Amino acid sequence: MKPKKAVRATVILAVAGALTAATMVALAPTASAGTTLRTAAAEKGRYFGAAVATGKLSTSTYVNILNREFNSVVAENEMKWDATEPQQGRFSYSGGDRLVSHAQANGMSVRGHALLWHQQQPGWAQGLSGSALRNAAINHVTQVATYYRGKIYAWDVVNEAFADGGSGGRRDSNLQRTGNDWIEAAFRAARAADPGAKLCYNDYNTDGINAKSTGIYNMVRDFKSRGVPIDCVGFQSHLGTTLAGDYQANLQRFADLGVDVQITELDVMTGSNQANIFGAVTRACLAVTRCTGITVWGVRDCDSWRGSDNALLFDCNGNKKSAYDAVLNALNSGTPIPTTPPPNPTTPPPNPTTPPPNPTTPPPGPSGCSASVTVNSWTGGFVVNVKVTAGSSGTRGWNVALTLPAGASVTNTWSATASGSSGSVRFANVDYNGQLAAGQVTEFGFQGTGTASGLAPTCTAS
Ligand code: 9MR
Predict the structure, then answer these.
(1) Can you give the pTM of this predicted structure?
(2) Which segments in the chain show pLDDT lower than 50?
(3) pLDDT value, residue 374
(4) What residue's CA is closest to ligand 1, atom 18?
(5) Which ligand 1 atom sits closest to the C-alpha of 297?
(6) SS (H, E, C) the chain
(7) Ligand 1 pocket residue status of 174, Cβ below 6 Å
(8) Ligand 1 centroid to 304 CA: how many Å?
């Protein structure tokens, strides 16, 4: 996509101001000024990240800036579908692994980009449609998110699925033609594969309240109301020479739905307004409590996909630009994420005459264990997420049995070991999730072909 250059009037955000009294009370004391982007952002409880081309990790100017200034990275290309599954079912993680190792060695978190996107699909996927494509896409999400489980702070599960222009609807693509539920199927599969990662929807031309951002807003609201797992929305922010006056208000309306927001691919057209816009975007993020971090889409101007736009914070020699100073100043003067307010000292203590709960009463719940399933199906396939809850004695291990309808079969399983693939199937715990304390919950999942209706799991503890 191209950055949109003519965006409304030239309105630079005047941020701050709008803190409620309650928030003010809860703020941490002002921290000392950070001298790098990463320290300044960390002092405000945020990350500051860059998109990285792993091939440049051996260029010293590049890597010196990266390590000094950034505490989050995202692969510019190496974790996309064409890179990670170049042939169907054959996965390649070398580029992504290199970035993850670099991040781990340098105290950086990793954003994962992107599990599903209509662009940069491998040729074999471009040639698929219908349930074959749906199965392949969900399998891709499952495999890649499982492989990187525990290493990714936030995944762009789905990238750029909404149309430009005024429709506010979905973009046509091979993925969209598998059925409108492809996005929620992807989010459910990602949650089952890596329950610890934040799951984001990511898009561009959403830098303000407009038809496209409103379409996404409505999807997120719908997902939250139906329990589809979504944790965050990424605003790419490939910007031109102006910034929408409601940029911050747009972030805030998403945050008010109960998701985090992140600026995920920031770059800005060169010119007299560039530093102002970088500063205004940074201030907007810091003024929104749930804006957890900012990523710029590259390190130096010459690293950028935008070529002669000179759209980043460092020039080609690695010198800081005035845009850098604007961002650093905005970070240092921004609002820290509020700490949890201390309990109100004027609240009266609980009534001392209320008898304490009887300590000999056993905790509620049966001994053994119980299991429940969430099924996400589409024509020809399904993903099942199984929640195992330990009873009052806890478990040393567990076994879940269920019967699949005729014609259904399991194609892969995560966080459990399956015996059998059709009819009666049993799933046993793996090493790390067998031992559960009373009431503790663990989850595993499996994917299959056919239909998985009416599943009635039974759980046996050992
Ligand atoms: O910066 C990426 C560039 O190297 C690739 O050639 C391009 C391929 O489509 O993707 C660029 O990154 C895009 C990102 O993945 C999604 N949002 C738009 C970014 C810029 O096009």
Answers:
(1) 0.73
(2) 2, 4-31, 342-365
(3) 81
(4) 1
(5) 1
(6) CCCCCCCCCCCCCCCCCCCCHHHHHHCCCCCCCCCCHHHHHHHCCCEEEEEECHHHHHCHHHHHHHHHHCCEEEECCCCCHHHHCCECCECCCHHHHHHHHHHHHCCCEEEEEEEEECCCCCHHHHCCCHHHHHHHHHHHHHHHHHHCCCCCCEEEEEECCECCCCCCCECCCCCHHHCCCHHHHHHHHHHHHCCCCEEEEEECCCCCCCHHHHHHHHHHHHHHHHCCCCCEEEECCEECCCCCCCHHHHHHHHHCCCCEEEEEEEEECCCCCHHHHHHHHHHHHHHCCCEEEEEECCCEHHHCCCHHHCCCCECCCCCECHHHHHHHHHHHHCCCCCCCCCCCCCCCCCCCCCCCCCCCCCCCCCCCEEEEEEEEEECCEEEEEEEEEECCCCECCEEEEEECCCCCEEEEEECCEEECCCCEEEEECCHHHCCECCCCEEEEEEEEECCCCCCCCEEEEC
(7) no
(8) 10
